[in-house]
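Ticket #4471: structure output looks truncated?

Reporter: J.K.
Steps to reproduce: submitted the chain below (205 residues) through the standard prediction queue, then opened the result file.
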Amino acid sequence: MTKYYQLPKLPYDYEDLEPYISRQQLMIHHQKHHQGYVNGANTALEKLEESRKNNSGLDLKAILKDLSFNVGGQVLHSLFWQNMNSFQEGNDQPGSDLAKALKSEFGSVKRFKQEFSQAAVTVEGSGWGALAYCRQTKRMLLMQIEKHNLNLYPDFKILLVLDIWEHAYYLDYQNERAKFVDGFWNVVNWDKVAKRFVLARQISG
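Returned output as attached by the reporter:
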């Protein structure tokens, strides 16, 4: 039985990220844009399967490019929803172990936030800002991901990701991407980031 991608449920209600991300903004982003990438990935898979079933020709280059784009959108959005939670006063800083690791790499948590924010704000066009873990060097590194699938570090474990496509913030912030990035820090799920970090280190051995 063929397995297809599905739109994941959010781990919170649509209004739970307000005032930093509005209910309307989150609903459109999740139900329309993320669903679009799910549909695109599934359509590409169906084309591949149909071609193999019928032993017919296929523009494989175009299909794989389309599949990469849409699967990237599906994976990154799924991570994005999970690394946010409802705003809670005093919950805007990482726990001690994660904070210690961030300080070791960036000098301080404040410096990390500054560098991450700058990386996100300065992505050319549409894309993502991300914090990733390198299994070889055992270091945290920042990524600027263009679209969903360009400039990725192969095999790096993504710990924290921020969608800075315009569809992620335009209803709430218009063209002020930097204000959206600033607001994001109020809804980061630091427990989830910490768990990803622990897992990444375990996998790296």
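Triage note (M.O.): checked the attachment and the full token line is present. The chain has a mean pLDDT of 92.
Status: closed, working as intended.
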